[in-house]
Amino acid sequence: KFCYPSGYHHHSPPDCLFSSGKTPEFSRKDFQGFQKLFHRFLQVKGPSVEWSKINRPPEQSVQPYEKIKAKGLPADISTCLSKLAVVKLNGGLGTSMGCKGPKSLISVRNENTFLDLTVQQIEHLNKTFNTDVPLVLMNSFNTDDDTKKILQKYKHHRVNIHTFNQSRYPRINKESLLPIAKNMAVNGENAEAWYPPGHGDIYSSFSNSGLLDKLITEGKEYIFVSNIDNLGATVDLFILHHLMSQPADKRCEFIMEVTDKTRADVKGGTLIQYDDHLRLLEIAQVPKAHVDEFKSVTKFKIFNTNNLWISLPAIRRLQDKNALDMEIIVNPKTLKGGLNVIQLETAVGAAIKSFSNAMGVNVPRSRFLPVKTSSDLLLVMSNLYSLDAGSLTMSKRREFPTTPHVKLGSSFTKVQEFLSRFDNIPDMLELDHLTVSGDVTFGKNVSLKGTVIIIANHGDRIDIPAGAMLENKIVSGNLRILDH
């Protein structure tokens, strides 16, 4: 529950920042959006869901991917593709992996960045089907400049690239509920005063940018939205065909790709049935007493991959009616100086309840391959995956389709340090589980199989020699090698 000291609910939104007549137009729109969000934040009392009203989604509302694939493809799939645009969420920085600048510019495979791979995928699609699927990047004020500089390099690729910017909202002092910004500047001492308000902001900023109307005018009917760091989020022709083949009066306006939970995904948002609508339930909305139930793999079996297929005319209609209702995520942060602030955010998938005939599709795990940590990076750089036209697919030489469980310790957190610890990436085709902790380095052509645990004690260092083959081994302290 949100609890305020008495009197807080009388606050109107902090508009000391809105008063400057010199505010540029984009900021005016940002502030109107923020004002709406802030008003709702003050009005919301108690949790956004009542636990007793939560039900599992009905069978027909989450379809297995196999059933959709079984419909096959029409001869004219390029007609379907001509009505599609691909949107990548590109607002994030690579700070959690020790990098400066946009996360999408981190090299993930053979010197290719997330952005390179995305462009290659869409270019391949356009060439193969002789079509023109545009790529749209939703940047934030943090990533916009660096991303635009790099876009020059794709000038001669067969893909039209558009960008638009997420809103810029003021961070709020947790105690006073007033913005901490001194003025409109985004740099210097004011840099920490602003934040991009989560990917749920896509609907209003896409609309405000004029790009939504431009794409509709060009005959585009759907967007495929995904996080740019999810290397499994490629355009799926079977899901696209399923959308395009619905009868006009039953047009599905929103598909959320979900996949089966494993122990690693217990915090992921899940689809529920609530008040006769499909709805996304995030861990932040779950009352404390029910968090364990939410995390259980038995009650909530699926989670949201954030690969979404959304109707453009429907976004236009809901924007015009101001009918997109997304739960507010209150994200508490502590700034460098120790000041406690809150960021009000929304999630793009939370809008599912506002769209007609929305559904989930339970897709294979291979469509969810996010790179959030150096442990994920190790997987996608390894021989577990082969790269073809920008798409990563599990190597045919791996005998079972599941991904190994990899946990690298804090010495591997930053990408530069991670890279310096491997002469080359080990052979991981037969690996089930890898845990590495402490000061560990790997020589050339190391092979890891089964369960491998390598723990260098504080002050010790372990160098795995070139050509070593570790199968079901525990390596500890001073390089004693034991059977697992």
Automatic annotation (TrEMBL):
<feature type="binding site">
    <location>
        <position position="199"/>
    </location>
    <ligand>
        <name>substrate</name>
    </ligand>
</feature>
<feature type="binding site">
    <location>
        <position position="103"/>
    </location>
    <ligand>
        <name>UTP</name>
    </ligand>
</feature>
<comment type="pathway">
    <text>Glycan biosynthesis; glycogen biosynthesis.</text>
</comment>
<dbReference type="InterPro" id="IPR029044">
    <property type="entry name" value="Nucleotide-diphossugar_trans"/>
</dbReference>
<dbReference type="Pfam" id="PF01704">
    <property type="entry name" value="UDPGP"/>
</dbReference>
<comment type="similarity">
    <text>Belongs to the UDPGP type 1 family.</text>
</comment>
<comment type="function">
    <text>UTP--glucose-1-phosphate uridylyltransferase catalyzing the conversion of glucose-1-phosphate into UDP-glucose, a crucial precursor for the production of glycogen.</text>
</comment>
<comment type="subunit">
    <text>Homooctamer.</text>
</comment>
<feature type="binding site">
    <location>
        <position position="372"/>
    </location>
    <ligand>
        <name>UTP</name>
    </ligand>
</feature>
<protein>
    <recommendedName>
        <fullName>UTP--glucose-1-phosphate uridylyltransferase</fullName>
        <ecNumber>2.7.7.9</ecNumber>
    </recommendedName>
</protein>
<dbReference type="GO" id="GO:0006011">
    <property type="term" value="P:UDP-alpha-D-glucose metabolic process"/>
</dbReference>
<dbReference type="InterPro" id="IPR002618">
    <property type="entry name" value="UDPGP_fam"/>
</dbReference>
<dbReference type="GO" id="GO:0005978">
    <property type="term" value="P:glycogen biosynthetic process"/>
</dbReference>
<feature type="binding site">
    <location>
        <position position="229"/>
    </location>
    <ligand>
        <name>UTP</name>
    </ligand>
</feature>
<keyword id="KW-0548">Nucleotidyltransferase</keyword>
<feature type="binding site">
    <location>
        <position position="166"/>
    </location>
    <ligand>
        <name>UTP</name>
    </ligand>
</feature>
<keyword id="KW-0808">Transferase</keyword>
<dbReference type="InterPro" id="IPR016267">
    <property type="entry name" value="UDPGP_trans"/>
</dbReference>
<feature type="binding site">
    <location>
        <position position="198"/>
    </location>
    <ligand>
        <name>UTP</name>
    </ligand>
</feature>
<dbReference type="GO" id="GO:0003983">
    <property type="term" value="F:UTP:glucose-1-phosphate uridylyltransferase activity"/>
</dbReference>
